[in-house]
Each structure stands twice: as structure tokens, then as C-alpha cells.
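Researcher: I've got a protein sequence and the SMILES for pyridoxal-5'-phosphate. Could you write out the 3D structure of the bound complex as C-alpha cells? I'd like something to compare against our soaking experiments later this week.
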Amino acid sequence: MNDSPPSISLAAPRASYLAHRQEINVAIQRVLEGGQYILGREVAAFEEEFAAFVGVPYAIGVGNGTDALELALRACGIGPGDEVITVSHTAVATVAAIELAGATPVFVDIEPASYLIDVRQIESVVSVRTKAILPVHLYGLPANLPAITETARKHGLRVVEDCAQSHGAVLNGKNTGAWGDVAAFSFYPTKNLGTLGDGGMVVTRDAHLASRIREMREYGWVRRYVSEQPGMNTRLDELQAAILRVKLRYLAQDNHRRARLARAYLDVLKESCLRLPSEPSDGVHAWHLFVVGHRQREELLNFLDQRGVGTGIHYPVPVHLQPAYRNRLPLRLPLPNTEKAAAQVLSLPLYPELPIESVQQVAEAILEWES
Ligand SMILES: Cc1ncc(COP(=O)(O)O)c(C=O)c1O
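Model: Sure. Here is the predicted complex with pyridoxal-5'-phosphate in place.
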């Protein structure tokens, strides 16, 4: 392994801060001087702006994406004894949130080309206990939402979207997050809309779900010191909201830059024998990650490491094989595509401030490795 830091990194949250430094510093100063640090004007304004961005009436700022998913599920009345259908090829947080809500995750496999939930398998695992389908728009690519919402309607299930990686992704003219009953976003620093700490958001078009979530994020309070239901403490704080308001203004532009860099990778790598990322047939990819697949993934990773190129693996071990879940969550279906993806995927450097020359350099290095 190369011990020096990569000269081309996988992601660069600091570059995003530096790109908007002046405006972010002004926003931070405004909060510091304003004296209200929890659930004040910044959070309220950001909730309104983010809801408008997604195209839904309600958005509730919370502490992180995992809490956003847990609250989304709990607000739907999902808890102990209930089952939620999802994928194992995802961030462990997706599955952790289902268990935090008290429910049981039930896995289906992914489609090999898109790495997303294989909708055709959903009906084979629906049981009397099933309450929801939880698709993950992994890497920024929208899952097959028309088919998912149709299957959910047929079986009376909720759809809870995991949009942690899909800020700005669109399918058939509608943003991810606006399709399901409720959706969860993360603002972890490396996300397409990332803050300088932790943050998350739940969005919905359902007024009842919105008010339940709003109460639950703060001790179940309907007003100060009056808890109508058991809640938790997971508030988005004013500082993060102020930073996110600045960055939201640049999200469309940043996503365009990501898309331009992704095109540059695709142009050079079309001659390679890598498995290249899928694109939506009628929609917009948010290009959170640029993920390729190869049987000799470790060799390619080591080669790029020697060349000073930072890479990542999203994700090296599927959730059902993680020590915390293995032997505890019985599988209803084998997950061969999930296990193959975990062995073959490799994420290449991609962030809005990355120079296009660096993308060309990485892509050409890959062709050289192949030859
Ligand atoms: C697909 C997915 N779901 C959920 C989460 C959880 O978000 P957070 O880290 O903000 O809790 C993440 C982020 O890591 C993610 O990538």
C-alpha cells in the first residue's frame, strides 16, 4: 500500500467548503451572532427551501440520515413484528435504521447492471408482516420507482425512499424523494449536498406523517414540555442548516459538474472491459459516486493506489454478511448479485471541484493497467 495521501482523492469535502468559503463563513457568523442555535430561523428556512427543491410540501430537519430513515419508518407506524423489504448492497445505515425502528429487514437481491433493488423479487418475499419497501437510490441512480410504487399499492405497503446518495436525481420528471410516502436524506460531508458535520432530512407530502416526525425529532413534543408520543432528540442544528442553505444554492451546478466528469470517464473507459455505471432511461443521475466493476478489483485498486489515485469500495461486505447481522437475519432468497457486486465494485474519484484533467488521467491509467 502507498502510505502517502493520494494526489487525486476520491472525494473532497474541504474543496466544497473552499469553493463557497466566503458565503459559508458569513452564514456561520450570522448564526453565532444571532444567538439561537437550535431549531430557529435557519432550520425553518432550509426546510422550506429543501422541500421546494424536492417538490414536496414538507421537510423536517434531523440529526443525520440514519435518524431520518428511522423516523420515517416509525412515523408510518412500523415497529416490532413488522417487516421492511430492502437490499443488502447498501450502507449499513439503511438496515440499521430498520432495526432501530424495531422492525425486521428482509432482503431481496440487486440487478447486476444497476446495482439497485431487483423489483421482480419483491413479491416473492411479501408476507402478512410486510409493511414497507425501502429502495435505496445507490450511487445517485434512481431505483425503478414506478414499479416499486405499483407493487406497494397492490399489497398495501408504504414506500420509504433512501435518498442519502440521490440529492437531485430525477425519474420521469419527478425528483427522488417525491415518489414514496416518505423519504430520507443524509447531509454527511461527502454527499452531493453535504454539510460540515452531520445532518439529515425527512421529506413527505403527507401532512400527518410530517407532524408526527416533527414531534418525534424532539421528545414527542407538540409544544414545549408536552409529549404526545414517545420521541427522541435528533434535531438539525442552526449552524448546519445555515451552511446547507448556502450549498443548496449550488447543488444543481455541482451536480452538472459531476455529470460532466462522469461523461469524461465514460468517454475514455468505453473501450475498457470494466463494468460501467448504468444511466436512467428517462431521468437524471445524481452521480454521487462513479462506480466501475472488475473481476480483478483488488489489482486495479492497488495499481491506482500506486499511481496516487484514491479509490473506495461501496461496499466491500454486504450487510447480511457483516458480523452484526450474519447468522441473525435469516435470508429468504440467495443474494448472488449482491455478493458479486461487493467483490467487484470500485469507486473512482468524483466531486464537483475535481479537474477534468484528473479524470482523464485516472481513466487513462486504467486503460494502461488493462493493456
Ligand atoms: C445509502 C445510505 N443510507 C443511509 C445513510 C446514513 O446517513 P448518515 O451517515 O447521515 O446517518 C447513508 C450515509 O452514509 C447512505 O449512504
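Model: Residues 64-66, 90-91, 93-94, 136, 162, 164-165, 186, 188, 198, 200 surround pyridoxal-5'-phosphate (CB under 6 Å). Residues 251-269 form the longest helix (19 residues).
Researcher: Great, I'll pass this along to the crystallography team.
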